Fold these 4 entries.
Entry 1:
Amino acid sequence: MSNLIKLGIFILIMYILQYFLTFLQMNSFKKYFNMFLDEGKVAIGIQKGAISSGAIVMFCVDEIGYIKRYAYIQGVSVLARFKEKKEFINVNIRDLDEEMLKGLRLHKNLVKAILNAKSNYIKVQNGEEIELEKSPFQKAVGIFKK
């Protein structure tokens, strides 16, 4: 068997593994999203990390904004899974700010994701739309369209 065929088989196996692990990660997201949605409103915040770890935060809030449940995912690979924490239970999502979060010694991208979730929640409550940031691929393609 030639080295080129071996390389092709290796790349195919890595692609299938990547697909499977991404599938598991998305199932973790769907599980928490559906659980939280059954209990109240859901506020989601995202902070992408190009080289460092990114973070996604999900809050389940009641009708007036008090946090009932909180989960997050943080990492650079598809091996990361959502973790549910208790830090913000019974805190109003509008009260989350950098000052409060500094005391908890959270990763900077997790703090940004939490603040993004707060911002998204407030925008939706005010009837505003949330604009999604373009992916690196969309940004690269946009350069060539000019």
Note: The chain has a mean pLDDT of 86.
Entry 2:
Amino acid sequence: MEHNIELESVSISIPSVRAGESEKRIVSKLPSKITSRGAQIHLVSRHPEVYEPCDDSFALVDALLADRTNLLEHKPMLCLEIGCGSGYIITSLATMLGDETNTIQYFATDINPHAAEATRKTSEAHGVHVEVVLTDIALSLGKRLSRMVDVVVVNPPYVPTPEEEVGCEGITASWAGGENGRSVIDRILPVVDELLSEKGWLYMVTLTANKPLQICRMMGERGYASRIVVQRSTEEESLHVIKFWREVDEAMKWQSRAATQTASDSWFSQFSRSTFWRRNN
């Protein structure tokens, strides 16, 4: 099924789901300059209040590149990045997929207006067509894109911080994740579940402190299978890029595992015994 959403080469304001506010859509449409390796760093727009590409950004793009063959066979029609920041990730996804016929539609959201503008500039510099929506997570897109999105990519605010830092203005919002770095992640997951199509895939960055096994259990109860695409350790953190996809019987399997799980197991041993690697989806 094709979902045609008309894009215009202008910035417009439309009503938001939050009373008294408006969401600004910034659309870029330029001739194609597509490559298959991701966005070029020197073309990425920068602003002091926007998170620049870093280890976690590179890990997510590497995961997409590692899964590129599957993504091409997947033939997504609509892709979305939640929390787009500089636009490096959504632009990388678009460039590695290529789309000379302009059949794939790309959306990106951010609560930071400077990030929305940076993403517009980054996508323009690469000749990529992206509609950038200024909104919290993707709440204002829920009804319009419900069950329509084939690929979602998220590098969420995952750093454990005091709860009062969550949702602050400016660049702090890009990393402040609250207790266990989960405050924003736990809000993102149900939104993604609403947006993903029946064949939809989610790629998300997590930190060890985020309790990724618990996240996978939560998604498993919603009917998602999962696997680690990239695992990377730096001096400061251990990152996992996890891919989720719908699987009809997955909720029952996870509920069964939860019933037999012993409290003495370490999360890492649970992580390695799970079925995340059992299918090269």
Note: Strands lie at 11-15, 22-28, 78-82, 105-110, 130-134, 149-154, 196-207, 224-233, 238-246.
Entry 3:
Amino acid sequence: MKKILLLCLAINYLECSPNHGSVVETPNGPVRGVQNEKGDFTMYLGVPYGVVDEDNPFGDAKPSPKFTSVFEAVSDSTLCPQYSGRPVGDINCLKLNVYAPNNIQPKDKLPVMFYIPGGGFIGNIGNREMLGPELLMKHDIILVTINYRAGIYGFLCLDIPGYNNQGLKDQVLALKWIKDNIESFGGDPNRVTVFGQSAGAMSIDILFLVKEPLFQRAIIQSGVALTPWVIAKMNNSVPINVAKELGFKGDDVKAALDYLKAINAVDVINVTHSLNIYDTENHPLTKPCVEMESEGAILIDYPVNLKPKVKDLDIMIGHTLREASFRYPVSDESYYDNYVFDIELRQDFNET
């Protein structure tokens, strides 16, 4: 009897705890978040928006299945596979955070801000520790931040269909989740502003080419689709070389992918990092690329040849404060004396 009483008290405490958010009923199932320390907004952390097939981690993700019970959205510790001082991440990483003010009325439909983090297409972090919501939560908006696949799992560029631009396709999947579910959190699915920096900004500019309109406004910070180094060339060698380093024998790209799918993602990322998979200008080989036309294709030609679908969209383009501060302030005079602007000038300007 005493144990039952203690259990009931524990359950009652959890349900009534001031940091425990209310349950939100979404089309994808019930979700419970957690209030921030001050109790002025609720955080729904680590909500799945997609599922990566463990038998095909380099292929298309599928929408997250509906929750059969309350999903406890209280942790956003999962990262997509990447090298961040050390190899980290898990392939089941397609999660997002939703932040909503506590004073929302049932009739309210607040504008939504959807952030796509940068990371050079080799990594990204959408969690609260890196992207704290406190500043934007001072305004009447719903904020969403996401993880998406990058590097070898998100941006291969192969001559076989179904393995290219997965990171971009993850972003589209997340935007579709927003369209279907954000109203349950008090957001307006018809007032979505997408914003991002660096690779996130370049991704947004590429998403202007998607057939289906997924947002109404965009803020592009320090990066566009016409940035000369953004689009990769077809290259089957990346997965083959990584697989060989891990014991694979052969030169067939599909066989190499099949071999890699059985290896822990952290080990794959570690080898990818050690091989230093960059081009001669120190840009990653894993990044967006032109893919074969298909139902799920994102980029079927070079951006310069395509007409972005921007009619009736509000767009702001600029750059972040102290852009590239990781490089320019710490470089010596020789870096600037020997800097070559050729890559910046490789556009069809007819003159240089």
Note: The radius of gyration is 22 Å.
Entry 4:
Amino acid sequence: MELGRSLWMKGTTISGSCSFLRISLEKPSTFFLIPPSPLKFPSPPSYIGHARCLSTVLQSSTSPLLSELQNDDSFTPAGIENEKIETSKKGSKVILKGMRYSELEKWLQSHGYRPAQALMLWKRLYGNNIWANCCEDLEGLNKNLKRMLGEHAEFQTLSLKNTRTAFDGTRKMLFTLEDGLDIETVVIPCEGAGTLCVFLVKMGLRRNLSAAEIVEQAVFARRLLSAEVGTITNVVFMGMGEPLHNFENVVKAADIMVDEQGLHFSPRKVTISTSGLVPQIKRFLQESNCALAVSLNATTDEVRNWIMPINRKYNLGLLLDTLRQELRFKNNYKVLFEYVMLAGVNDSVEDAKRLINLVKGIPCKINLISFNPHSGSLFRSTTKEKMIEFRNILAEAGCVVFWRWSRGDDEMAACGQLGKPGEFQAPLLRVPAQFQAALGAAPGPSILGHQEESEMNCEAAS
């Protein structure tokens, strides 16, 4: 769940400590992609956190402007037959990781190669512990095929620029895209099963990520880290931006990742996070078997209108009724509600009781998330004692609920702390009178958080 993303969204990333899913792995791993300006690592703040899971969070957008963010229900109809094969920004070469298997097969056939050779190439890109990123990695393939690929195809859209390691073992990797924009990926080692969390976030809203740029984050994570953390099994799409605004590329990337002959992620362990775009949610639930996480963050329209302006277009009633209706047609499927707890804003006993009533009739899990303070935000984290009380009320009512603290904040690698705000800032939003005392805010407008990233418990993905 992203608070910051939601704020940007007003009309509106593959997925720390974990007890909740983000993407769970037997060893979790999580990504955050952020594209923008050069990354500067601030001096490390105090360490917080404990976790236990691995997930991958993929960010999917890098740049929609605010006006574009408000056009949240306009997107191109799906259909593989209408899709163009992704090509390099530096030339006319096709990008291999931007194609579904069916597209790769057709493209190779157009060059005179058999379907069996397409499968061999696919397995070398995504399977057999090869994760090829150049022709030299394609052992066992026909020499003519490798020569053709060298002339007409690109293997990589990302290049590793920098890596930092936090006190708790969390790694923050900085990648550069073909057009010079930067993306951050955070890998969080967890206790127990050797999982990690991978968050994808962009550094400022610049543009949407392509399917290949999303997929390659997962490939890099496996290629660089599998020997240390084991197989990465979970992925979460989130970050600064709304994944469902980049519907086509997000769904395509997810399709590539769940292919049984390739990366072979379980569809239920690939989670797409959204602030609540109702038309896209309906379409997603009808077209995809991947998991869905919805950033709820409030129990009344009054509060949600303030902290998540998307609610002004798709309010709680419409959002939750849509989920009730659509989930009737999906077997053994639960939506994950992400709930970032903000001191004095949405963490009262009354909020807990309202939340119980709101989710009635919806197959779901609830993930309680500790807010990560950051520059520009007036919100404060709910105390541990208050979060336990809130969780217990939900659990006693029969809700499936998870709760976890953050990791990696000593290197500003925790959710909501990645990257830089970018050129386009969140709008100034007035703090409602009843919350001014809780936030210590003046009556005038205040800038709220720019990218509070949600972290899901690894167990939530199972």
Note: The two ends are 18 Å apart (CA to CA).
